[in-house]
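Reviewer comment 2.1 asked that we show a complete input and output for one of the modelled complexes. We chose the iron/sulfur cluster case, as it is the one discussed in the main text.
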Amino acid sequence: MSALGIYLHIPYCLHKCGYCDFNSHPENREESEIYVSALLSEIDHYAPRLAGETVSTVFFGGGTPTLLPPASLDKILGRVKNHFNLRLDCEITIEANPATVKQETLAQIRSAGFNRISIGVQSFDADELKLLERVHNEEEIHTTIDRARLAGFDNLSLDLMFGLPGQSPEKWKSHLHQALEKKPDHISAYSLTIEPATSFFKLQDRGLLELPPEDTQLEMFQLTIETLQSAGYEQYEISNYARPGFESRHNLNYWDNGEYLGLGAGASSYLNGERFKNTNLPSRYIREVQAEGAAVESTETLTPLHAMGETIMLGLRRLKGIAIEDFENRFQISFKKVYGKVIDPLLNEGLITLKQNHMALSRKGLYLADSVILKFLA
Ligand code: SF4
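Response of the prediction step:
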């Protein structure tokens, strides 16, 4: 096994955002204390299975991990460090939402060993934040970023969202510029998608929420690429941009279809060709971990064809694409033999490129990524 990523899910949030389909639940202080104990037990449970493996990234995501007291975060990370073999330069990320962190909290988190912070900004506009049902305001965005820098986070990422109802390309451009003024090392810029079982879905269904037309969304995507590239950020994945050397190593491992262990409610793992997922509901997760040490709800062993399809699906999201030689070494099969018939029409339509033994999306293919990727999964 090559270097491994560990993901830890903290499922609590102050409020459910209208567009959110993540595994997030209302803040519950009493339950979250027991949740932390369960997480510690789950770490103990998996440690022997992964003894001797090297961990290159650790990621605390949510939900809102910064809702937990810093002492709890310190305890969980300490347990991970004690039980797994972390690389000396291990990337240790925590997601943070403005309005959930104080200066001293950030300093404590930083000294616990977190060395990368990803801040959920989404928008710099008061009306848009209200529409998204985010609990923070514009001022809190600025103070949180400034405080994170002061606390010593020299690897800082901002999450932004475009294609919001009523948003114009000019407004989106102003958000990009405000983000750039904060000099982040990394920016994730996702277009808003309406997922089933969200309150946005119900609003859309009733005709009360309308996204900008597709060509406007495409214009915003192009604007993102141009604005961030000219500011020195490399687009290394469809929605992710970084200053040189600041790509998210944890996410790169996902896109490389690498192995990872997911801990906590709803977390997924991929180890030795097997995918398994924990139960979503925190109270149930706690009960199952207390009883059995783990809370796996479903397991799937990938067939070689399925694993190949996932490698393509994830790898094409990276701008550098897929190294065909690595693919062939991994699956011991000729790339052309499996995908020759899919590749030729896509090449003819100019949607993919084949250069120096790499297959990647072309600029045109990038804008149609989902439909191009689907061809490989058919
Ligand atoms: S803060 Fe994030 S995880 Fe929590 S409800 Fe909002 S979008 Fe979902």
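Residues 92 and 114 are 5 Å apart (CA to CA). We note this here for comparison with the apo prediction described in Section 3.2.
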